[in-house]
Amino acid sequence: QALLIQHPEHETNVSSPLKSAPLLVPPRALKLGQEGFKKVCRTEEDSPCPFPGLAAGVLEMRVKEGSKIRNLMGFAMARMQGEKAVSGGDVSSGGLRQVVFTGSGRAVTKTITCAEIMKRKVGSLHQLTKLQYKVVKEVWESSEEGTSEMTVRRTVPSISILLSKDPLDPQEPGYQPPETLSALWEEKDGVESASQTACKRPLGPLSYSSFTHCKRVCLGEGVSVLPPQ
Amino acid sequence: MVENTVEMDPVEYTLRKRLPWKLPKRRNDVYVNMKTDFRAQLARCQKLLEGGGHREICVHGLGLAINRAINIALQLQASSQGALQLAANTSTVELVDDLEPEDPDEAGEPMTRTRNNSAIHIKVFYPDTP
């Protein structure tokens, strides 16, 4: 279990309802776990649905850090294919038309993997991907006194992927037509290479040197202010 | 997924991961990794959009770096006060591992193994409508 709750790239607001201890630690370097705090509960605040106008009964797969892909996929595939109609009420033999995969924090990669596996197995699925920050509220309790409690509000990146057998609006940002497994790369490559190669070479060394300079400056700063990730 | 079903013996082989495929590298492509400092990569994107005069950049992340790529894109959007929009696409990238026999005299033949990893490509752009 990770004791370090603060990554340098996450924003944290700490509010202490009981001013028991002088908690003047800067929130960015806070390590509650090491100071004898225990996480009591973790609740995700409701965020607006990233897909407005979506039918209410859509299957939503909430992918968590510890979810097993075979469990998630076993369930979702059965519902989408509809062969093994587990629930008696499901009359449609073809299975569901749409499914949403959502996940936040460290479950994001797993969420994408699930969607990618489903696209490959089911085929010709339209995809809509949305990103947003999700607010997670954590309550930490001091193990020593039992009286001091802290509420931490964290924002974690989250992803929602809608996969649909029916066509979706291609104008919507984040839309992906079916069967773009590797075409995404080749297409871009082909279109851009002709126009870009001409100006790429002469400008190359210049931009490269300026980047290394910038990198060195930022690294030095990072070491002094923040603990290594 | 795994073509070669032969189990690898960690004593006899060293696993060497090849670099992921050929990368399209335009001036507005940013490949996010986990080695460079987060803020340096964020600053680089900000520079491209503000100083570099690009109307759109493309932030790519593979595997573990997906999270960081999303974070960068969302940070860019938040600091633009809603001026920037995001359009994310996902894909699967095939990666190749080389299995090299440790001891050339012993039986082992060099083998390769392919596996898949997820990737994300986020277009960060100013919408066309003024």
How is the secondary structure organized here?
The complex is a heterodimer of chains A (229) and B (130).
Chain A lengths: L11 E4 L21 E8 L14 E5 L5 H13 L16 E7 L3 H15 L3 E17 L6 E16 L10 E2 L6 H43 L4
Parallel strand pairs in A: 3-4
Antiparallel strand pairs in A: 1-6, 2-5, 4-6, 5-6, 5-7
Helix pairs in contact in A: 1-2
Chain B lengths: L12 E5 L11 E3 L6 H13 L5 E7 L2 H15 L5 E17 L9 E15 L5
Parallel strand pairs in B: 2-3
Antiparallel strand pairs in B: 1-4, 3-5, 4-5
Characterise the protein shown here.
The complex is a heterodimer of chains A (229) and B (130). With 229 residues, chain A is of the alpha+beta class. Chain A contains three helices and seven strands; from the N terminus they run βββαβαβββα. Chain A has a domain of 87 residues: Alba-like domain (Translation Initiation Factor IF3). In chain A, strands 1, 2, 3, 4, 5, 6 and 7 form a seven-stranded mixed sheet that branches. In chain A, helix 1 runs parallel beside helix 2. Chain B has 130 residues and is an alpha+beta fold. Helix content of chain B is 22%, strand content 36%. In chain B, helix 1 crosses helix 2. The mean pLDDT of chain B is 81. Chains A and B meet through helix 2, strand 5, strand 6, strand 7 and helix 3 of A and helix 1, helix 2, strand 4 and strand 5 of B. Chain B: Keywords: Cytoplasm, Nucleus, rRNA processing, tRNA processing. Chain B: One of its GO terms (cellular component) is nucleolar ribonuclease P complex.
